[in-house]
Design goal:
Elements: E1 2-7, E2 10-13, E3 18-26, E4 33-39, E5 46-52, E6 58-60, E7 68-73, E8 78-83, E9 92-99, E10 117-118, E11 122-127
Parallel strand pairs: 2-11
Antiparallel strand pairs: 1-3, 3-8, 4-5, 4-9, 5-6, 7-8, 9-10, 9-11
Length: 128
């Protein structure tokens, strides 16, 4: 079993920055890709960013491209989401997820059903 624990959420003003972390643990952690999703109140959960673990190829939702950066520390099995120039519409619960299945297409990892493990989520609040 794999456990994912997010941290780093909080409250910031528009234009500010936050850095989310997702620590993965468990027996023989092996992941083809890691992703971040978010869910705002009253809305469906949506894809934010994904990273192929072996090659660090990255993929972003258009809404965050140029403002958010996904990265990883393989030594600690930790994935990060650096969020800059935050907007009120970025306010949501952010979830980290791990996918076991490998795909050549990074677009594959935009679908939440492709992920096998999920964290509990961390709240990000952005005030205008």
């Amino acid at each position: 079993q794999v456990q994912l624990v997010e941290s780093g959420g909080g409250s910031v003003q528009a234009g500010g920055s936050l850095r989310l972390s997702c620590a993965a643990s468990g027996r023989t952690f092996r992941s083809a890709a890691m992703g971040w999703f978010r869910q705002a109140p009253g809305k469906a959960r949506e894809f934010v960013a994904a990273l192929r673990w072996s090659s660090t190829i990255k993929y972003y939702a258009n809404s965050v491209k140029g403002r958010f950066t996904i990265s990883r520390d393989s030594a600690d099995n930790t994935v990060f989401l650096q969020m800059n120039s935050l907007k009120p519409e970025d306010m949501a619960i952010y979830y980290c997820a791990a996918a076991i299945q490998y795909s050549n297409s990074m677009a594959y990892y935009t679908f939440q059903e492709k992920y096998d493990y999920w964290g509990q989520g961390t709240q990000v609040t952005v005030s205008s």
